């Protein structure tokens, strides 16, 4: 089957933007990286040119380009909503890293703008494209574990905690880290909606810090009776750790291990496994699959499998977590 690749302009050449650029250029035949934009002098060109693309210094150059069909947004989270709307207004298909906005109102603006423009809109919830999580979802959807009763999702970032707690924006653990877990729990409980949450969080790597929250546990109740927990840490010394578990009336399914291979070394210190020390390393195949889905949806003229509705549902849980933390009580999730 022959096709013309989707021509992509990427906005943001930071850590995740650099990874996305390489993935799109080298691992996704359905897509072609044609441009990268970043305001820092020379940064975009340094990333783009070895990948056969050009560097730009502003998002506006991407939006105005006739050779760009779709935009991938990997800029600062606070800019996502504005860039989504601008890309849609320019008639470009949109892939945005999570979160798709810093409030439910901002996310709704992106959903409305992309729908009005008639362009594809996909959000970067990569766990949905990891093979083990996908297999777990499919088993649940097929009824193999019966009725969903309990769920658990874990995200632990590698290292010893933020080098400078003062630069971590407030509520990051809910809106940018656990947002993946909230989407995963929604996805692994098909057809159910989160009703309310209880959130507990603290700064354990910098005790007493006025804004940093680096460890959190959240309990979520769903309208089908299922109870879920989401757990996050910014300080896992052993590596990047992403896991999920769902208990049903007829069985259980788990996903995620963190090991980079199935090899295990047995020596005097015990049984050892090499673990991933970053999301790019652990989730490279998932990142590849999500961009393949984005390109395929554009080429086929259909809605991507992860839409703005998923972004809104996950952020509604994050917003309820903030409210629960502030009040010290259970908080309702906005429908």
Automatic annotation (TrEMBL):
<protein>
    <submittedName>
        <fullName>Dehydrogenase</fullName>
    </submittedName>
</protein>
<dbReference type="InterPro" id="IPR036291">
    <property type="entry name" value="NAD(P)-bd_dom_sf"/>
</dbReference>
<comment type="similarity">
    <text>Belongs to the Gfo/Idh/MocA family.</text>
</comment>
<dbReference type="Pfam" id="PF01408">
    <property type="entry name" value="GFO_IDH_MocA"/>
</dbReference>
<feature type="domain" description="Gfo/Idh/MocA-like oxidoreductase N-terminal">
    <location>
        <begin position="6"/>
        <end position="125"/>
    </location>
</feature>
<keyword id="KW-0560">Oxidoreductase</keyword>
<dbReference type="GO" id="GO:0016491">
    <property type="term" value="F:oxidoreductase activity"/>
</dbReference>
<dbReference type="InterPro" id="IPR000683">
    <property type="entry name" value="Gfo/Idh/MocA-like_OxRdtase_N"/>
</dbReference>
<dbReference type="Pfam" id="PF02894">
    <property type="entry name" value="GFO_IDH_MocA_C"/>
</dbReference>
<feature type="domain" description="Gfo/Idh/MocA-like oxidoreductase C-terminal">
    <location>
        <begin position="139"/>
        <end position="332"/>
    </location>
</feature>
<dbReference type="GO" id="GO:0000166">
    <property type="term" value="F:nucleotide binding"/>
</dbReference>
<dbReference type="InterPro" id="IPR004104">
    <property type="entry name" value="Gfo/Idh/MocA-like_OxRdtase_C"/>
</dbReference>
């Amino acid at each position: 089957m022959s096709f013309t690749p989707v021509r992509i302009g990427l906005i943001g050449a930071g850590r995740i933007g650099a990874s996305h650029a390489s993935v799109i250029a080298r691992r996704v035949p359905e897509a072609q990286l044609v441009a990268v934009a970043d305001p820092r002098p020379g940064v975009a060109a340094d990333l783009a040119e070895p990948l056969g693309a050009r560097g730009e210094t502003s998002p506006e150059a991407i939006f105005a380009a006739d050779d760009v069909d779709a935009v991938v947004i990997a800029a600062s989270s606070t800019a996502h909503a504005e860039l989504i709307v601008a890309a849609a207004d320019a008639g470009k298909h949109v892939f945005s890293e999570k979160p798709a906005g810093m409030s439910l109102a901002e996310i709704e603006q992106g959903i409305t703008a992309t729908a009005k423009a008639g362009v594809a809109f996909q959000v970067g919830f990569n766990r949905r494209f990891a093979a083990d999580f996908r297999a777990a979802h499919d088993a649940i959807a097929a009824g193999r574990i019966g009725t969903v009763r309990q769920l658990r999702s874990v995200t632990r970032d590698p290292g010893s905690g933020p080098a400078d707690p003062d630069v971590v924006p407030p509520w990051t653990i809910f809106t940018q880290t656990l947002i993946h877990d909230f989407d995963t729990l929604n996805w692994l409980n098909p057809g159910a909606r989160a009703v309310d949450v209880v959130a507990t969080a603290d700064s354990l790597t910098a005790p007493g810090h006025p804004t940093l929250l680096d460890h959190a546990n959240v309990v979520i109740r769903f309208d089908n009776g299922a109870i879920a927990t989401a757990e996050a840490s910014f300080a896992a010394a052993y590596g990047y750790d992403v896991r999920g578990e769902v208990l049903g009336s007829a069985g259980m399914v788990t996903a995620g291990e963190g090991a980079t291979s199935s090899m295990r070394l047995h020596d005097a210190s015990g049984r050892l496994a090499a673990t991933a020390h970053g999301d790019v390393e652990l989730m490279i195949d998932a990142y590849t699959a999500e961009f393949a889905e984005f390109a395929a949806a554009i080429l086929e003229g259909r809605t991507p499998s992860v839409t703005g509705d998923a972004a809104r549902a996950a952020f509604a849980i994050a917003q309820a977590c903030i409210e629960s933390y502030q009040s010290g009580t259970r908080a309702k999730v906005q429908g």
